[in-house]
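I hope you will forgive my troubling you with a question about protein structure. The matter concerns a single protein, recorded as an amino acid sequence and a row of backbone structure tokens. Please examine both parts with care and let me know of anything in them that strikes you as inconsistent. Thank you for your consideration; the sequence and its tokens are set out here:
***
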Amino acid sequence: MAARAVIRFAALLVAAMIIGAAPALAQTNDPNLTQTEIDCLNRGATAADCIKRDTEDGSGERPGAGSAATNAVLLPALIVDLFPNPVGGGQAPLPTPDPRRDPASGALPPPVPPAGATAIQAAAAGGPIVSPSDLVAAEPPRAVVGDFVPDEVLVTVEGDAVQQIAASFGLEVRSQRQSQLLGATLVRFGIPDGRPVGVVLAQLAADGRTLRREPNHVYALQQAATIVNYAFERIALDARGASGENVRIAVIDTAIDDTNPALSGVIADQFDAMPDVPIEARDHGTSIDGLIAGVGALKGMAPGARIYHARAFEGGKSTMDVILAALDWAAEQDVRIINMSFVGPKNDLLGVACRNARALGIVLVAAAGNNGPKAPYGYPAAFDGVIAVTATDAKDGLMQQANRGAYVFLSAPGVEMVAPSGAGSDVVTGTSFAAAIVTGAIANLLHAAPDRSADWVEKALAATARDLGPKGRDNDFGYGLLNIEAAEAAKE
């Protein structure tokens, strides 16, 4: 038995030596390879050499076959963007520099903390600030929806860590302030190295001192186009008895022409949330304030109301950080209503600010949007606790350009109305102006009974609106057309 075992072991050993001396056979699962190509591979040549020799014209392609690159495995686009191919197509790859190596001496820094440590931990351990390309994201890069500033992010931060966070994540501090409505320091970080916003937001999520991280979204005023105002009749408000006397209302909009006679004595205070940007347009804000509380020939819905006007738009546009500054200022003025006649993408910081303003008892009114029936939801209108207003015409027909959706709360006149403007007066159309009509109407309710809460106002408007379109609340008209007379008569 022992002898047979020795013989068997010797045979196996000889076989192994023979196999080891033979050339390695190519292993492939490509069904398109010819037998000649397989034999070529078995001789030790590269696949590219075999294919080139095997073609009729030396082009590197088999007759009737696609390019060899057809079956190449490509990196995901995001990785390609983060780690671009070296310049000069067919050249050998350039060596990848170590961003942590000292460029003068070539020496490496002190030991790096254990794998998984954050950039903050690295800095605390005495190591260098980690290059942005080395930062580990705590979540997948975000797909940012809507228009936004391409090289900025907005972050709320606890404590005094703003500069440390900026250094650790390769960012620059462009502005910072304490936000009342957000309950934290709001920082506008710049991204100087061209990283995508979604990547930076994912990287910042790794730092526990950052509370909320959002793009600096861009928002747009909702004016669709350019006689006695028919709104009074349509919403059942007696123009002779209309009053918002002493009701404090904040408006976030463009600059205004406070020399317009319709705004005489109407503006209680003004705030410029973008003081470094020259003022070029005053029409939209003037129209909004005039429709709410105008006096004289262009009487608004609530004459006597006190308007606290925040300039936050120029060229019809604004950014999230500017709007948040205006909202904080408005909340500090102890206003009862905030009118927001603008629309943009969903932003968590704006949602928190609106939620906290509503918790303070402020009624929030916003334009539903003029971007058409298939447009995405418009914010801030689509946030809970915000009265989203769409626009109707003199015959209660829906404005064609109006946004649709389950968030639409109420309808109000907003098509071809005469309103004050920087040049005197103009014919205006848009959900912006419908929102102003609702804001003025609510001021009448609060003037009649100052103790009415934001919840009461919302419920009364919904319960008394005149149904339009399909029965009940719908995506076009919401609960229906504002009926201020019925709302005034609603039980407490």
